[in-house]
Amino acid sequence: MHEILSWISANQQIIYIVILMIFVGIEVIGHVPSVLHTPLMSGANAIHGVVIIGAIIVMGKAEPGNYPALILGFLAVILGTLNVVGGFVVTDRMLEMFKTKKKK
Question: H helices then E strands: how many in the chain?
Answer without folding.
Answer: 5, 0
